[in-house]
Amino acid sequence: MEKNIYGYVRVSTREQNVERQLIALKKMGISQSKIFIDRQSGKDFRRPAYQKMIRRLKPGDAVVTKSIDRLGRNYEEIKEQWRMLTKEIGADIIIQDMPLLDTTKSRDLLGNFISDVVLQLLSFVAENERNNIRTRQAEGIEAAKQRGVRFGKPAIPVPENFSELYRRWEQGSININEFARLCNMGRSTMYKHIREYKRMCESVC
């Protein structure tokens, strides 16, 4: 039975370049037709190209990827996928940046033990770094808020004649679409300002 070697490439966004990973895979003689590329987060394995590759795998085939974080970033799911690929399907995995994570080199007890230990360590480091990034982002956002930085789209100010336009809308001389157009805002924003204006009026009455 012919054994196939497949390459797997992943980047987090469509804007990121896959060239570095492709070059590394092609140096191993892997053809473009056997390279699967996902452009999305590595938080789980619900990725179209990855799933398509898995469906093709047969015992004795191999999956090659540049680094462990290209495979994924979730510690528990990486371990589960590793077990499924090597134990259930009977395929090999080659992580190019980490020679110890190459199941084609040794399938004896010691080789499997070393591979499993290194995998668990690297998977933990990858997920821990992901958690650290989230923490740093949250801390940065909080610090920026304390400095007065505002996030999101800037609020659309109401025109000076809003109360007059509101009165005309309430009396039926203009409809909601006209009201929104005269205030230079969309309908959903318009209704939000109407609610705020009503609350303001009720509070001063």
Write the layout of secondary structure elements.
Blueprint: E1 5-11, H1 19-26, E2 35-39, H2 48-56, E3 62-65, H3 68-71, H4 75-89, E4 92-95, H5 109-146, H6 162-171, H7 176-182, H8 187-204
Parallel strand pairs: 1-2, 1-3, 3-4
Q: Can you tell me about this structure?
A:
The relative contact order is 0.08. By secondary structure, the chain is α/β, with parallel strands linked by helices. The model has no long low-confidence stretch (mean pLDDT 83). The chain is elongated, with a radius of gyration of 28 Å. The termini are far apart. The longest helix is centred in the middle third of the chain and has 38 residues, at 109-146. Helix 1 links the parallel strand 1 (5-11) and strand 2. 53% of the residues lie in helices and 10% in strands. Helix 4 (75-89) packs antiparallel against helix 5. A 4-stranded parallel sheet has the order 2-1-3-4, sandwiched between helices. The chain is built from 8 helices and 4 strands.
How many beta-strand runs?
4
Strand content: 5-15%
Order of helices and strands: EHEHEHHEHHHH
Mean pLDDT across residues: 83
User: Using only CA atoms, what is the Rg?
Assistant: 28 Å
In percent, how helical is the residue content?
40-55%
Largest sheet, in brief, is: 4 strands, parallel
User: Which spans of ≥5 residues are poorly predicted at pLDDT below 50?
Assistant: none
List the strand order in the largest sheet: 2-1-3-4
Describe the global form.
elongated
End-to-end C-alpha gap? 85 Å
The DSSP helix count reads 8
Helix/strand/pairing class, anyone? Answer: alpha/beta
